[in-house]
Amino acid sequence: MPRIHFNEVVTRDGFQNEPTFIPTESKIALVDALGECGYAKIEVTAFVSPKAIPMLRDAEEVMARIRRVPGVEYTVLVPNQRGAERALDAGADELNLVMSTSELHNLANLRMPREKSFAGLAEVIRLVDGRKPVNVSLSTAFGCPMAGEVPQDEVLAWAARFVDLGVRGLTICDTTGMAHPAQVAGMAETLQRRFAGQQLTLHFHNTRGMGLANVLAAVQAGIVRFDGSLGGLGGCPYAPGASGNICSEDAIHMLHEMGCDTGIDLPRLLDIARALPALVGHEVPGQVAKAGRSRDLHPVPASVSELQNQLQAA
Predict the structure, then answer these.
(1) Nearest Cα residue to 263 out of 12, 91, 69
(2) pTM of the model
(3) 101-133 pLDDT, tens per residue?
(4) How many Å separate Cα 302 from the centre of its chain?
(5) Domain region containing 234
(6) Pick from 37, 127, 194, 302: CA 20 to 30 A from residue 222's CA?
(7) Strand (E) or helix (H) holding 279
(8) How many angstroms separate the CA atoms of 232 and 142, rounded?
(9) Distance between CA atoms of residues 63 and 100, nearest Å
(10) Is the separation of the CB atoms in 264 and 277 below 8 Å?
(11) Which DSSP state fits 101?
(12) What CATH number is associated with residue 188?
């Protein structure tokens, strides 16, 4: 079975909707700790307007002070040319661009039609001009909470337009947790046929409890790259009731139990995950950090040991 690569998005996608500002020092410490766990990428921050996302107003300082681990790509989200310039100056390893495949969601999220978003992102790609790899994340690729179904052909058409511009990777996003495993399997198979040369990543949310099932369906269809968020933090502010991303440690635990190689040091990651609620000031959705791994055994109660001894003596 091929190596499965995980991208950690908690310090960007996970934190951006948190109501209380997370100190810069804490973000840096978290990125540094995650860098030692074996991730393929860490999406550190976003170079966006501080007015739009106050949580990420410290993007330059965070990028300047993190300790970079060889072999880990430190990627950032950029919305426009100004964000791209800032990201390049900050030494980002990869720039991640985002637009929605749903016109209504793009209007709600980015305040512009899709064609205008595409034109702006095309300018960013031309500005970068191959100096750094570019990834494009296509939101609501499995459904829009306002428009309903987004036809697969429409998702593929937008993906092809970006591939033609020379991007390295595509992330296909279930932004509001509407995907189901059969749909995911079909999308994964088609993506790999159409864009075999691309770095393909799938990004799932667990809004309706199907996040891990969708990861499994994608792995079985041949996808080897996934986004995840520590503790399951995150969510789409433009989709009422949309809860967070799939929980990184839960997904990685599932794959480890199945014998998959992710390169992740899961015990180390779980130690970090267990400190997350104190950092954000509330409980988080992740389960394995609370329950422990399936193979973590509990002490035998004294009463059971006593009963065993009695049975053996009988």
Answers:
(1) 69
(2) 0.94
(3) 999 998 988 899 999 999 999 999 999 999 999
(4) 43
(5) 5-313
(6) 37
(7) helix 276-280
(8) 19
(9) 27
(10) no
(11) S
(12) 3.20.20.70
Q: Indicate which residues carry an active-site annotation.
A: 236
Q: Are 219 and 255 in contact (CB under 8 A)?
A: yes
Listed in sequence order, the residues at least 6 apart from 224 whose beta carbon sits closer than 8 Å to its beta carbon are 2, 3, 4, 5
Reading the block at residue 252, the tokens are: 């990685």
Q: What is the pLDDT of residue 237?
A: 63
* Cα Rg of the chain (Å, integer): 20
Determine the residue type at 183: Q
What angle do helix axes 266-274 and 248-257 make, rounded to 10 degrees? 150
- How many CB atoms sit inside 10 A of residue 295's CB? 8
Pairing of strands 41-46, 73-77: parallel
Name the residue type at position 11. Answer: T
Other C-beta atoms closer than 10 Å to the C-beta of 282 total: 12
Return the structure tokens found at 219: 């792995």
d(C-alpha 30, C-alpha 268), whole Å: 12
Residues in the chain predicted with pLDDT less than 50, given as ranges, are none
Six-digit token pair at 47? 């170079």
Eight-state DSSP code of residue 229: B
Give the whole-angstrom CA distance, residue 137 versus residue 4. Answer: 19
- pLDDT per residue as tens digits for the range 197-234: 999 999 999 999 999 999 999 999 999 999 999 999 99
Q: How many residues does the chain have?
A: 314
d(CA 213, CA 211): 5
Structurally, how many domains does the chain consist of?
Answer: 1
| Placement of tokens 């001894």 in the chain | 309
- List phi, psi (to 5°) of 227: -85, 150
Instruction: Please tell me what DSSP assigns to residue 231.
Output: G
59 CB-near residues (< 8 Å, 6+ apart): 44, 45, 46, 47, 48, 76, 86, 90
